[in-house]
Design a protein that fits this description.
Length: 64
């Protein structure tokens, strides 16, 4: 997936890449998506708070 993101961005730097489904609400999956450069994750409405928190934690972790 990381290779696909990198190659896609070489061709279209503005491309938005993401995943949909239950992985979008799983904290470890959200961190993985952040690490490989996905733009967004999509998940069930009841998982949105978890996904937002996981995304913020991944961004902070990257800054350290």
């Amino acid at each position: 997936m990381k290779t696909a993101c990198e190659l896609g961005r070489k061709t279209r730097p503005e491309i938005k890449l993401g995943i949909c489904g239950e992985h979008g609400g799983d904290p470890s999956s959200v961190e993985f998506c952040h690490q490989i450069g996905l733009t967004y994750v999509s998940c069930s409405p009841f998982r949105v708070p978890i996904a937002r928190l996981a995304a913020a934690q991944a961004a902070i972790k990257e800054m350290k």
